[in-house]
Request: fold
Amino acid sequence: MNKILVVGAGGQLGIELVEGLRQLHGAENTIASDLKPFEETQLPEPYITLDATDATAVKGIIEEHNVTQIYHLAAILSAKGEKNPLLAWDINMRSLLTILEVGKMEKVEKIFWPSSIAVFGPDTPKTKTPQTTTMNPNTVYGISKLAGEQWCEYYFRKFGVDIRSLRYPGLIGYKTLPGGGTTDYAVDIYHKAIKGEVFNCFLDKDTRLPMMYMKDAVKATIDLMQAPSDRLTVRSSYNVAGMSFTPQEIFQSVRSHFPDFQIVYDPDYRQNIAESWPESIDDSTARSDWGWEHNYDLNSMTEDILSHLSQLLS
Ligand code: NAD
Ligand code: SER
Reply:
């Protein structure tokens, strides 16, 4: 029987991934944890307050609950990272190395850790960015994710730790507000439309970025973790793609449901971050290795989000 520990579960991805994992493995076998106290999360029990950089605490929980799989999500994201680069480096690297080292010592069967399209930089081919290509990220978040990918591969090759990873595009969910990313505008826009407010967009109207609906991200994560180990040819991190769009295109998709909705473009420091990232991703290796397929495009995502979010906010 699998016993799952999700670390950094109180964020945008964790809230929905925990739900998917609980459906698969049972709520009693899926422990959510985060730095936040229980009262500050939307997560039901079982829940533990846990600092991912505290090796003694992580080890204690793995031993007490006989944890067989870890999903390590805790991180400082791109925009927040540029405001405090040393903090982002410290949290992102120290937490990953803690999980890898404790996972190795405790013989945890499988570990999942997310990377990001932020591993790519201005020298990377912009469209259909290949799995293996020039990277040179120019944000501290991207540098930490690229170093993290290399640490994952090192622990797999040197110590046999079965760690698996995805380079998520911008993730769009409606269940919680995002935590400091450059792609967050594409979450916020739905909340503003439903509240009848003008949307002030911090990216320029033609800035195309790779994105993915959260339901697809949860599916990709679970599919990767269930794939037979010998099918996986990538042990750094897999490119995965869902859709690519600009602020103007998502605005048009939302406005087809709210004809009076208005947008104002007011780019800030996040514009430079977005411009250093690819516009679209080639994920053919993920598709052929473990059968990755996405379900949602921009308009089907918009319909799904608006139908659920209007119920949640009413
Ligand atoms: P988020 O900011 O919403 O959530 C991160 C969570 O980590 C927060 O609940 C925070 O309290 C927790 N955390 C921070 N430091 C911690 C620590 N020391 N110990 C335990 N918990 C800690 O982020 P998210 O959007 O849910 O992203 C989850 C993961 O997915 C991150 O690794 C991120 O880099 C990656 N990712 C996200 C996106 C995206 O668009 N959201 C895209 C690519 C990759
Ligand atoms: N979507 C994330 C961000 O904008 C990238 O990992 O930071």
Remarks:
- Residues 7-8, 10-14, 34-36, 50-53, 73-75, 77, 91, 95, 114, 116, 168, 170-171, 178-181, 183 surround nicotinamide-adenine-dinucleotide (ligand 1) (CB under 6 Å).
- The chain has a mean pLDDT of 97.
- The chain has two domains: 4-168+213-239, 172-210+242-313.
- The chain is about 45% helix and 15% strand.
